Structures are given as structure tokens and as C-alpha cells.
Amino acid sequence: MTEFVGELLPPARLMMTPGPSSVDPRVYRAMTATLPRGPKGHWLLGSFPDFKRDQLGFHRHCLREYGDFVPLRFLRYPVFYLYHPDAMEEVLVTKNR
Questions:
Q1: How high does pLDDT run on average in the chain?
Q2: pLDDT in tens, 35-63
Q3: How far lies 24's CA from each of 19, 29, 47, 65, 75, in Å?
Q4: What are phi and psi of 6, to 5 degrees?
Q5: The pTM is what?
Q6: C-alpha–C-alpha distance, residues 3 and 65, integer Å
Q7: Phi, psi angles (nearest 5°) of residue 14
Q8: How many Cα atoms are found within 13 Å in the side-chain-facing hemisphere of 40?
Q9: Residue among 66, 19, 73 at smallest CA distance from 43
């Protein structure tokens, strides 16, 4: 029962980054080449259809399959999910500009 309650934590914060059209293609390829793996998603829509179908289930799947840092794509925008509380604190508080 404890494991199930732990899975119902609020979803991770979304962090948007510039899309491929606003970044030099060589820089964008270099940025995305070093990312850990995440859900592949639809070739055009990315992970948006899966997210829209079942939001909580999508977050649970991402956390279980890919860990605390999950790169994915919604439509044409790269998105990064952070699930670890320490990482969220670092991004939102410590590194906040």
C-alpha cells in the first residue's frame, strides 16, 4: 500500500527549452545527442497523445521506465521532466535567476 501512495505524488515541473526552429541545427543536435533516453512518442506529435490520454499514468510510466530525469517532446518542443525533489529544488530555487 505504501508503494501505491508514493506513486500519487504531484507530477514533475515542466521546463520548456527553445525548440529546434529557434536554435542553430548543429547546436540543437549536439544538445539532444547527449540526453538520456526517454519516451519515443509519435513522429510528429511527440509524447503529447500519450500524455493527453492518461496524464497521471504517463507520469507514472516515465518515472518507472526512465528515472528522475526524462527528456521528451511535446509537438515540436523539447521538454524535460524532473521527478527527484532535490533536482527540482536546485532548478527552481538554487539556480533560479
A1: 79
A2: 888 999 999 999 999 999 999 999 999 99
A3: 10, 9, 23, 31, 19
A4: -65, -25
A5: 0.62
A6: 16
A7: -90, 135
A8: 2
A9: 73
